[in-house]
Amino acid sequence: MNGFIVVDSARIKCEYGSIESTFLKAEYNGFIIEDKNPILESNVDISSFLFCTLHQRACTFKALDGRWRDPAYLRTDEESYITSESTLYCKDGGCLSIVDAGQKGVAERDGMLIMIE
Fold first, then answer.
1. What is the mean pLDDT of residues 26-35?
2. Pfam families given for it (predicted)?
């Protein structure tokens, strides 16, 4: 299993951030999980982590390459969604990871969505 599909109530952490963060927006893209929008791999619109302990200044997050790594490449859809196993790197250093996917009912396995009981 590659992890739970991340939705708009997910919590994110940066290894150098002083607080957890969230996505600023998650637009409807034709698919809903538990009344929440799943997050596409191209969504790097993330709230600040308040303070960067690496650079000792206020956090201004800038995605390194504009895409999350290790998304779910689902055969049923042209878009790829991030999972609880996906990571994103900051241009200033630091790796972002998912603390809580925002739901525990839908995961991805071998390119297919599966329901978790």
1. 90
2. DUF4280
Q: Which residue has the tokens 């600040």?
A: 48
pLDDT for position 77: 59
Residue among 14, 13, 7, 11 nearest 94 (CA):
14
DSSP 31-97: --BTTBPBPBTT---B---SEETTTTEE----BSSSS-BS-B--TT-SS-B-BTT-EEEBTTS-EEE
Give pTM, 2 decimals: 0.91
| CA distance linking residue 81 with residue 83, whole number of Å | 7
Q: How high is the pLDDT of residue 81?
A: 92
